[in-house]
Amino acid sequence: MYHSDELLQKVNHSLANMCYDRRPATLYQPIAYVLGIGGKRIRPVLMLMAYNLFRDDPDRILMQAIGLETYHNYTLLHDDLMDKADMRRGQLTVHRRWNDNTAILSGDSMLVLAYQRIAQCDERHLAPVLSLFTETALEIGEGQQYDMDFETRTDVTEDEYIEMIRLKTSVLLACAVKMGAILADAPEADTQLLYKFGEQLGLAFQLQDDLLDVYGDPAVFGKAIGGDIASNKKTYMLINAMLRANERQREELMRWVTAEEFCREEKVKAVTRLYDEMGIRQLCQQKINHYFDECRKYLAQVNLPPSRKQMLSDYTDEMMNRQQ
Questions:
Q1: How remote is the C-alpha of 74 from its chain's centroid?
Q2: Is the pLDDT of residue 193 over 90?
Q3: Please, which of 31, 69, 228, 313 could form a disulfide with 44 given CB 3.0 to 4.6 Å?
Q4: pTM of the predicted protein model
């Protein structure tokens, strides 16, 4: 069995040695740039770990794992453009380093490359793998649209938010582990259990992002905290604050949410204080723990000896305790 760090090295080595020899070079330079500026590589590592549960040659599916990471970074490239974000992983975003049109076209090409790389599996697995990936890609677009729709709404419910992050974030983690299992010829029951495992893990992972954006250490988190508060992003925390606020708290919260001009630092501090008063941090942590517990239950049901699943279980625990 391979440790997650070993699989991460394999992923990074493969990405670093990808050859972009097609022309024009100006189309592919941003793609190499995006894939070369780092990242946690959680999705390809999960895919390789799921495969490694059943087979001992994860190098055999490295190209498919790279394809999934290519797709993930394509979504980030377009997200940055839509959000008008200046930085990603400490580097200029593509639309800032080049321009908007380049970001659109290079991003589109990344999507095509993702399909090309994932499709380089044997013919026996091609149909189920592409079917899973296509359905996932459609769901992620749906999740992104819900997220955009929520920007202009003040009545987003917790259930709506959970469904949005399931589509936007969770299904790609679920796809990663299920695809790895399919390529390893795992039993159908185990592939379904692993999909649910990845889905619950993804929900916990996104809620962690919500929490860290407010309460994380900027030096560790990698960016200034409070971005979600400053932009009035409809997170689990803001939605529940709206639901649980008393009259005074709701009035103050709405004043900050509707303010067109404000001091960013003052707004982040004030809204965080309201979260503290209402116990929103503890509420969010309880929800995170719930989803982590659920993902562990699904992994426990996979029909393999516990020792075979230990590496994946350990990696899940590392994700639960992350600070960035």
A1: 12
A2: yes
A3: 69
A4: 0.95
Cα–Cα distance between 42 and 285 in angstroms, integer? 21
How far from the centroid of its chain's Cα atoms is residue 56's Cα? Answer: 27
- For the chain, how many structural domains are there in total? 2
- Closest by CA to 185, choosing from 38, 7, 57, 4, is 57
**55: pLDDT strictly greater than 80:** yes
CB-CB contact of 106 with 27 (8 Å): yes
- Residue at 125 is within a domain: no
**pLDDT digits 0-9 by tens, 74-103:** 999 999 999 888 888 889 999 999 999 999
Residue 233 burial (10 A CB sphere; 0-12, 13-18, 19+):
middle
3-state secondary structure at position 91: strand
- Last residue of one domain, picked from the residues 61, 87, 120: 120
Lookup result for tokens 């992923």 = 11
Q: Which domain holds residue 277?
A: 131-324
Half-sphere exposure of residue 258: CA atoms within 13 angstroms, side-chain side: 8
Spatial separation of the C-alpha atoms in residues 21 and 309, rounded to whole Å: 40
> Hey, what amino acid is at 187?
P
C-alpha to C-alpha distances, 91 to 75, 168, 202, 296, 322, nearest whole angstrom: 17, 23, 25, 35, 22
Separation between Cα atoms, residue 72 and residue 211, nearest integer Å = 22
Pair 115, 139 in one domain: no
Please give the torsion angle defined by the CA atoms of residues 179, 180, 183 and 184, in that order, rounded to the nearest 10 degrees.
-140
User: 225-265 pLDDT, tens per residue?
Assistant: 898 999 899 999 999 999 999 999 999 999 999 998 999 99
